[in-house]
User: Fold this.
Amino acid sequence: MIAPPGGTDWRRLHPLTPLVRFGRLILAVALITVPYLESSRSPRGKFELFYPVLVWAALIGLGTIGAIVSWAVTRWRIEGADLRIESGFIRRQSVRIPLSRIQAVDIVAPLIARVLGLAEVRVVSAGRGGEHGRLAYLTAQEAPAVRARLLALAHGLSAETPEPPAVPLLHVDNGRLIAGLSMRAHVLVPLAVMVVAIVSAVIAPGPGVAALGSVLTIVVGAGVALVRAFNEDFDFSINEAGDGLRLDRGLLQRRHETIPFGRIQAVRLMQPLLWRPFGWWRLEVDVARQHAPRDGSDQGGGQQARTLVPVAPRAHVLWVLARVFPDAGIAPPAGAEPPARALLKAPLSYHYLAAWYGNRYVYARTGRVQQATVVVPLAKIQSLRLRQGPVQRWLRLATLDVDTAGRRWGASARCRDEAEAQRMLWELTERARLARHAPAPSATAAAVAPA
Amino acid sequence: MLAVVLSPLLGAAIATALLAPSLYALLIPAVVVLSALIWSVERGRYRSWGYAEREDDLIVHRGLLFRRTSVVPYGRMQFIDVTAGPVDRVFGLATVQLHTAAAATDARIPGLLRRDAEQLRDRLASVGEARATGL
Assistant:
């Protein structure tokens, strides 16, 4: 059969796929059964072992057959302007993803897959309820080639276009990563609680020891969260390619992600309290529609914030920020702070409260313990809201909210002077309108076709 | 809104009048004062609602105690809802709600006449389509 231009014939996933997909399950079953078999051994000998072993073997056998059938009926191809994935034996499923709507193509390699030299290609597409395709698993050599082909077609280039060369921007030091991650509140607070619990156990042994048990679970939970965060962001490197940023990270499970420049809705620069003496910062991006909600309950379309720089000195973070949002200045100009009477309304966050805007971005800074600055490009503003509660009216203050398609954080200019907030509202409305109609500022941003 | 708030109050008053006539005399002024109060607050809230269709965006203003002004560019609208609850339907009213890609956008115009609401929706939809921009 003749493949259409830019297309391929039907292809299967790698034959070792069932092993990776169900290997974990089989491993778990084995872990449960072996001790069970051990304990069920009776003085009469091996005979009693026969039936349990038979049952477990049958279950594993069925699982394996199921996995192999599932692999055998799955096939995929690039068909004209679509990526098609067919799967399912009893309930046949055919997914068709328009290449023009592809937002990003990620490569994910869990531990077992890495050992076997396999990787998964994850296609993320735009639109409400957009289809998301998973090609799990391909060989580790094939996966980048498939990604390059999909991205090239998505950008309207020829299928044979090689992946644009990536320039390394930043590599995060693992020592600093573990230090930075452990100096955050959700790790330190449980530790402090544990210290208090131990001290109280020494002073009053009776109830103190009882409390220690429950505290221990919190500490273990915090430890697990820390290890997981470290595992995810280990060996973090950021590369810049023509169409966006490439993130490589992970200890056990390696991820290679793309963040197209045109999809970034907002950026947040933050600094937890204890990072202040070291001058470390963290950079996160809010991207429109990156991940499909697992349970489908997500009404907003599944936007998620991604870590762009887990922890780095200020200069490095600003360097990456400049690549993402050129000419974005983080230092607030004079007059960015709200009037002094705002202290009455927002006593806790007043210290760092500031908001300002330029020709291309809006900035909003908040926080007392954890300082955070949100940067939103004017062209990405969805709507503007001016709010004023009774206390604010009494103080002649008002809050201006800037809504973006990301859901995590919009820039919010809190407690500005009433008249100034009004002026900001109209000024930002006008500037956002101009920014929307202006052509894309650079060739890199224009490389991504709009959805 | 007013009718919804007042009807249980009136019902309670009538019930009290039937069950305990001595309380009746006390209750009547209370209901009158309360309904006057609610009337004035609701009238204020009603008057605070306002919207303006500008060349490039829609402005919705609302609120008495907590005031809000929303500006939604036509190009950002993703879809428009026209809803009418049971009470709305009795009076032939409808609510128009605008949605953008941002979950936080709350541009809602309640209490429009059914026909006006549908016309507004169609008008907004056509300008929105003409000016639609990607994310």
